[in-house]
Amino acid sequence: MVIDHYQVPAWATKGWLRVLSKEFPTLAFHANINKSFGKGSLLSVLRQFAHLKRDKQAISVGFFGYPNVGKSSVINTLRTKNVCKVAPIPGETKVWQYITLTKRIFLIDCPGVVYHNKDSETDVVLKGVVRVTNLKDAADHIGEVLKRVKKTHLERAYKIKEWDDENDFLLQLCKSSGKLLKGGEPDLMTGAKMVLHDWQRGRLPFFVPPPKQEEESEEPNVNGVDIDDAVDGNEASAAIKAIADVLSSQQQISVPVQKDLYSENELKGEATDQAPNHNAEDIPASDSDTSEQDSPTKIPSEPLLC
């Protein structure tokens, strides 16, 4: 698993890294062609996987997951050039695309996968699965955004100090930003879509803290790795150990974070009950969207490959 997100505090990223590494190999990553994080670690893991499949002429590595999570951008970062199309809207990746990484390693850029679950329509929208421009009820989802995002972040983003409810928030936002219809009436739909765009592009800080963990460190889980018969036991053990070492090393080094999104207390973990991590590499804020986006344009009711 690749965690491609630097818009959360470093302690939260490393906390989730420890939690998820107990289930399957997990790496933190920042997808950026010019200033990436985790590229060397991911390349090392892929090379070790290729070594474990020596009887194959080549291996193919599929990048799959929800739409709008950065799959294409990870591939572009590994290749250090734009080989996969990315855009600040869902729906760009429509077909599988094979990318050559090395002579023996091929990468597959896959369209986003949407699973049938119990998510509400608002949950689906806030996961970035649908295009905001196609929503006919954008204002219906603003209440949940106001619940998730801290008031201080909303005040800083939109220069609004007090509001009674989501409707009052949108009214003030439209007036302050000039989103008005003929006659001076607030354009609530446009205002709501502006907020949802900012949410989907990571401009409104939000994250779920990792669950509390015991202090005892555990080795990352590399079980379940398929090993070919052509690889003897010693070679397989060495490759597995190399993968585990790469995963463990990431838990000991600093991870990138966009510091200007959070207060000092949030960066230190004092806003939650979680233990803080003080090592963080600062990455300046940018209006550019380096994440990959791909998804259907309507809320799905069944599993989709889109």
Automatic annotation (TrEMBL):
Keyword GTP-binding on entry: yes
Q: What is the top-level taxon of the source organism?
A: Eukaryota
Entry's PANTHER family? GTP-BINDING PROTEIN-RELATED, NUCLEOLAR GTP-BINDING PROTEIN 2
Q: GO cellular component annotations, sorted alphabetically? A: nucleolus
GTP-binding among the record's keywords? Answer: yes
Which residues lie within the region annotated Disordered? Answer: 264-306
Q: Which UniProt keywords apply?
A: GTP-binding, Nucleotide-binding
Protein name (record): G domain-containing protein
What terms describe the molecular function in GO for this protein? GTP binding
InterPro entries for the chain:
GTP-bd (IPR006073), GTP-bd_ortho_bundle_sf (IPR023179), P-loop_NTPase (IPR027417), TRAFAC_YlqF/YawG_RiboMat (IPR050755)
Pfam families found in the cross-reference section? MMR_HSR1
Q: Where does the G domain lie?
A: 61-150
